[in-house]
Write a structure and sequence with these properties.
Layout lengths: L1 H19 L26 E5 L2 E5 L5 H6 L2 E7 L3 E8 L3 E7 L1 E7 L7 E2 L17 E2 L2 E5 L2 E5 L4 E5 L6 E7 L13 E4 L10 H7 L8 E4 L6 H8 L3 H6 L10 E3 L26 E3 L8 E3 L3 E6 L7 H4 L2 E7 L4 E7 L4 E15 L5 E8 L3 E4 L4 E17 L6 E3 L12 H8 L3 H9 L6 E2 L10
Length: 452
């Protein structure tokens, strides 16, 4: 059984290696010097936007860590019956449902409205024949879902559950799909975020450095007369599109249950075009883990092989669980930056750059974000209560190389190379190479937390 597992794992690593060398899975290039990092910090939100229906929190994308990775990070907390208003972004977005359930829709240019309601009576006081509503696809959301949204695709989210719906989001601003600069931008189709009026609040929250996440209603810049003509409505109705007096923020409360055409719970599994492509993948079930050690933990991944839309976004995703005092083998990602978000517990993490310097050595707790640049070596250990985290990776097929364990780089070196490299005996070299039989997760006998 073990032989079969490791044969399968080796095949997966070989396929991942081959796909990585195609060169089509990565994000855009970075300017020289942006990743010359001597210190990485575990970060928390730098500012927040309060809304009627929830809170949006933003990390400082101007920090060296995020500038190196070319991404920005946000967290949205949507209250029950909260509707996150439609918006699109200048770069691809990958989101993870941390808690709760809901529904969301993505509007893809040129795709038909495949959801159609039965004919309905016009609203009271209005004349006319029965009308039928049509709109593009809607998906159910639940904890553990990974959602992929292309640059420029408008989308919205609604919390139809009885608890908060929490989403953590990475926007890949350095992606080739973004032809602007690396500042994150949200183009809203409704609402009035009033970002300019909230600058003082933003600065008080954590301190503001440089340009922050920009958002605004695109209809506000268009004349009422042009809008009336474009939509073939009267000017009073056209003026409402601008939401000039709307103080609810980008997340609003729906007074009654949102009336939309909901999809069946099961999909037919067919993905023929972008219009019908799968836009979410659930990663929460432990049975779908790619790597599992019953004494140490598990890792589940989503890449372009399991979630084809990620090939367009050039992003991938992973979820990891470490048991008490367990260690994730020292490793590096060969072709991607990694944005780590702790979802439970605390994690002792060490990160080393190309100079052999420890650019980070400390605890990262629940709710904090740590950016690990491409090729930087990293090791993680859980505390006494264990730890869970998710990783957003800037390649459609992020590939990992380990330094210890059964499939590690050390295991691939000849014994004499190891002995001479470290000036040790062949017996010591043999122990270094073969002591660990596990692949990625090692059971730990003691915690390093107290030794910091």
């Amino acid at each position: 059984m073990a032989r079969t597992f490791f044969s399968a794992l080796s095949l997966v690593l070989l396929v991942s290696t081959a796909s990585a060398y195609k060169g089509s899975g990565g994000s855009g290039s970075w300017q020289k010097g942006e990743c010359d990092i001597t210190r990485i910090n575990a970060q928390e939100p730098s500012f927040r936007v309060e809304s009627e229906g929830g809170v949006s929190e933003f990390w400082d994308h101007n920090s060296e860590d995020f500038q190196c990775a070319g991404v920005s990070f946000h967290r949205h907390i949507i209250r029950t019956r909260g509707l996150m208003l439609p918006a699109y972004h200048n770069a691809p977005v990958l989101a993870y449902v941390l808690k709760g359930r809901g529904i969301f829709g993505v509007v893809i240019s040129g795709c038909p409205e495949t959801f159609e309601s039965p004919p309905q009576q016009p609203e009271k006081g209005l004349r006319g024949e029965k009308f039928t509503d049509r709109h593009q696809q809607i998906e159910y959301l639940k904890q553990g879902d990974v959602i992929a949204i292309r640059a420029g695709d408008a989308h919205w989210t609604y919390n139809n559950g009885d608890e908060e719906l929490i989403l953590v989001v990475v926007q890949d601003n350095s992606n080739n799909a973004n032809q602007l600069d690396q500042n994150p931008r949200s183009f809203m189709l409704a609402g009035n975020p009033e970002i300019a009026q909230q600058q003082e609040q933003m600065k008080r929250f954590r301190g503001s450095h440089g340009q922050q996440h920009e958002m605004g209603n695109i209809f506000r810049g268009l004349s009422t007369e042009i809008l009336a003509e474009a939509f073939d409505v009267d000017e009073e109705t056209a003026r409402k599109l601008k939401s000039e007096n709307d103080e609810r923020g980008p997340i609003v409360i729906v007074e009654k249950e949102l009336q939309v055409i909901k999809p069946p719970f099961r999909r037919n599994g067919l993905e023929e075009t972008v219009c019908s492509a799968k836009i979410r993948e659930n990663i929460n079930n432990p049975s779908r883990a790619d790597i599992y050690n019953p004494q140490a933990g598990r890792l589940s991944t989503v890449n372009s092989f399991t979630f084809p839309l990620l090939n367009y976004l050039r992003l991938s995703f992973a979820k990891a669980v470490l048991y008490r005092n367990a260690i994730m083998a020292p490793h590096w990602l060969t072709n991607a930056h990694s944005i780590v978000y702790i979802t439970r517990g605390e994690n002792r993490i060490q990160v080393v750059n190309q100079k052999g310097q420890a650019v980070f050595d400390g605890q990262v707790r629940e709710g904090q974000v740590l950016v690990v640049p491409q090729n930087f070596a990293v090791v993680k250990q859980a505390n006494e209560e264990g730890c869970e985290w998710v990783e957003f990776q800037t390649n459609a097929n992020a590939m990992i190389n380990t330094l210890s364990g059964r499939t590690s780089a050390m295991r691939g070196l000849p014994l004499d190379v190891v002995a001479n490299a470290y000036q040790i005996s062949r017996e010591e070299a043999e122990r270094i190479k073969y002591s660990r039989q596990e692949t990625l997760f090692f059971s730990g006998t003691k915690s390093s937390f107290a030794q910091q």
